[in-house]
Amino acid sequence: GLSLITILLVDRGVSTGEGTFVLSMLKGTMLAGTLAGGALTARFSSRTLVLAALLMSAAGLGFLPFQTSIWLILLFGMLAQFSEALMNVVQRLLLMDQVEHAHQKEALGWMRMVNNFAQVFSFSVAALGARFGITPLCLFDSATSLGAFFLGRKILPRREGPAQSGRGLGGEPSGGVASKWTFFRMALVLMGWSFFYELFLEGGAGRLEMLHPGEGLHRFSTMMILNTILCAAFAVQATKLFRKPWITIIGGMILTVLGILLAGWGMASQLWVFGGMLLITLGELMVGSTAQYTLMRLTPGGAKGGFYYSLGISLMQGGRIIGAAVAFPLLIHASRLGPFTALMIGVFALQLAVLWSLRGEIGRLA
User: Fold this and answer.
1) Can you say whether the dihedral through the CA atoms of 357, 168, 105, 175 is positive or negative?
2) Are 252 and 291 in contact (CB under 8 A)?
3) Rounded CA gap, 205 and 208, in Å?
4) CB-based contacts of 153: which residues, under 8 Å, 6+ apart?
5) From CA 203, how far away is CA 217, in angstroms rounded?
6) Which of 30, 43, 184, 325 is deepest in the core (most CB within 10 A)?
7) What is the pLDDT of residue 85?
8) What is the pLDDT of residues 212-258, one digit of tens each?
9) Residue-wise pLDDT tens digits, 272-282
10) Whole-angstrom distance, CA of residue 75 vs CA of residue 336
11) Which of 286, 228, 282, 238 is nearest to 106 (CA)?
12) End-to-end CA distance of the chain, in Å?
């Protein structure tokens, strides 16, 4: 539903300035919702916050397509965006609170599998329902959120309270507490990976469309659906296969960067793009199987654990915002790919340096 806001703005005939203002405010709301997700866990249980996020999503997306005023579109769009960002944090906290440390990595794998299959389902619904306009799609999204709310009231565990929310973060109870500096270094590594991924996600589709008018978006979307299916199919198996977090994260980063560079330089050929996308998918499986779990294990414990974790997620989202911001000049409208390549290699070199400094802390999590 949130991805349809741009189309809604176009349908309402808003100006370029108004559209930029709305989309910028939604990006800011995403960061606010992420930080709120961590801060609110000190007062409310993760279960309560999950249910509240689902209700806000249902309301925001349910009323959004009927608005004609830019201010009401912004209001309901911000409500939906806030709920999505809030859910992104508290659903993981809820899961970690209920699962023992020994099984948390696999549990996160199951969550990624479900989320990826849900994306494939939503892509399919959007493709089939596009001819009916955005209103039925937004209402469908709203209805699923409302249905999840009522289901969640029945099945989500009630045993945790506000003081316990986020207690699954950090290392083993018998181990030492992770330092804030260690945590933020790991968050910066993931910020770089989010930057890579978003730069390719936003820039790859646009550059393919520039090089292959009328076909680029279709080609890119087809490969992204294949990527999502593979990530969903092997998400849980990857958590069992890749047992050494430090080596796995480095390997995943290398494959991701190589895949993006291969696809970026070879976009004139579908075969090169496919090869690059395959490397990106393998890299995503490796990073996804370990990195988020590692970040949560390195989160400082205590009452503010949820807030620190939300700060880490905010840094990752900052990487996404920067990646989207430079997609046009570096990839889509670039006359040469030298600056794009230099930036990719430079950021990756910084990641390797930070990861090398974390080898001891991450190695102990194996």
Assistant:
1) positive
2) yes
3) 5
4) 51
5) 11
6) 30
7) 92
8) 887 776 788 788 888 889 999 999 999 989 989 999 999 999 999 99
9) 989 999 999 99
10) 40
11) 238
12) 38
For residue 84, give Cα distances in angstroms to 54, 61, 65, 90: 8, 11, 17, 10
CA-nearest of 322, 199, 189 to 264 is 199
Sheet strands (E) in the chain: none
Q: In this structure, are residues 25 and 18 in contact, taking their beta carbons and an 8 Å threshold?
A: no
- Taking the C-alpha atoms of residue 333 and residue 272, their distance in angstroms, rounded to an integer, is 20
Q: Kindly give, in sequence order, each residue whose CB lies less than 8 Å from that of residue 44, ignoring residues fewer than 6 positions away.
A: 52, 162, 165
Give the position of tokens 């990595």: 105
Long-range contacts of 146-151 (CB under 8 A, 24+ apart): 146/54, 146/55, 146/58, 146/62, 148/54, 149/51, 149/54, 149/55, 149/58
The DSSP string of 149-218 is HHHHHHHS-----TTTTTTT-SS-TTSPPPPHHHHHHHHHHHHHHHHHHHHHHHHHHHHHHHHSTTTHHH
CA angle 196, 199, 201 (to 5 degrees): 105
- What contacts 285, CB < 8 A, 6 or more positions away? 230, 231, 234, 235, 238, 252
Is the model's pLDDT at 80 over the cut of 90?
Answer: yes
For residue 360 the two structure tokens come to 């001891």
- For residue 159, name the pLDDT band (cuts at 50, 70, 90): low
Which residue is associated with the tokens 């414990």?
Answer: 301
pTM value is 0.82
Residues in contact with 55: Cβ distance below 8 Å, sequence separation at least 6, in sequence order: 83, 145, 146, 149
